[in-house]
Amino acid sequence: MILVTGAGGLLGKKLVKVFDDDVVGVYYKSKPETSRYLSLDLSSLNIKAIEDLSPDVIIHAAALTDVDKCEKDPGLARLLNVDVTREISKVAERINAYLVYISTDYVFDGKRGNYREDDEASPINVYGLTKFEGEKEVMRFSSNYLIVRTSTPYGSNPASGKDNFALWLLRKLKNGEKVRIVSDQVTSPTLNTNFALMLKECVEKKVKGIIHLAGASPLSRYDFSVLLARTFNLDEGLISPASSSEMNWIAKRPMNSSLNVEKAMMLENKPLKIEDALKTLKKEIEENENSEII
Fold first, then answer.
1. pLDDT by residue for the chain (294 residues), tens digit each?
2. Is 37 a catalytic residue?
3. How far apart are alpha carbons 207 and 200 in whole angstroms?
4. CATH code where residue 198 lies
5. Residues of the domain holding 207
6. Domain for residue 241, yes or no?
7. Is 287 within a domain?
8. For residue 212, how far is the Cα from the chain centroid?
9. Is residue 32 part of a domain?
10. Which of 77, 80, 137, 244 is the most exposed place for a label (fewest CB within 10 A)?
11. Residue 286 lies in a domain
């Protein structure tokens, strides 16, 4: 049995889908699309229900990922991203489960980009710091683990009651609204379907240590937005470049937190180039009868 925390989130929804019948989705507010699920408030740190299920694999995808909210409420960020991870790591060790922890490119300071798995982490905001501390809790308490870092996930499905960046942008462009997007911050945008398939393969092969599972094309949010508009035949002229210094962000962002994915290229399900990822996104949205995007 595979247990996925954060099963109603952007990554969690795809993970429970690719693992199909062999999965239990753990959620708090956003119900997952799986036949077996467990409603649990992880912030209580009472996770005996997970231990009682005794899964073979625990994929810990639940986290506070709102970067500015983490900055405003570091206590909550520490509770959800560090303390919860510690307790899950302890449970995984007690029941001899293989633990997969979903981390982020924001553990790096963003001064150079193309970060490898063994590069030194140096987070510059509370979100990155608490996720890195979560990594350390996994390594401290679990002897059978995989730490997976990803970057700027997006997908065809709304999650936790809101659109991801790609869906937000598509709605804006479809409505003819002008948008200003930062052009000086580089990441490795990751289609959640590609991520889920890569992670499934890692679980099946029991890959251990740290691996970067992200898109194969580092680019700015502005360049990503222009390619997205072109893929969906929308007006890219509605998109204007902006500097990150113009944004009303509370937390600092790494300027180039792109991830090196050479290690993941050894998988059968390889990291997708941005053009292929966006074609897959378009196909998924077209096949979704309930989609209002196109």
1. 999 999 989 999 999 999 987 899 898 876 666 668 888 889 998 899 999 999 999 999 999 999 999 999 999 999 999 999 999 999 999 999 999 999 999 999 999 999 999 999 999 999 999 999 999 999 999 999 999 999 999 999 887 678 899 999 999 999 999 999 999 999 999 999 999 999 999 999 999 999 999 999 999 999 999 999 999 999 999 999 999 988 889 999 999 999 999 999 999 999 999 999 999 999 999 987 555 555
2. no
3. 10
4. 3.40.50.720
5. 2-162+188-215+258-272
6. no
7. no
8. 11
9. yes
10. 244
11. no
Catalytic residue among 101, 127, 145, 222: 127
Closest CA to 223 of 187, 253, 258, 255: 187
Query: What domain count does the chain have?
Result: 1
Whose tokens are 């690719």? That residue is 18
Tokens at residue 263, please? Answer: 């290690």
Q: Please report how many Cα atoms fall inside a 13 Å half-sphere around the Cα of residue 271, on the Cβ side.
A: 25
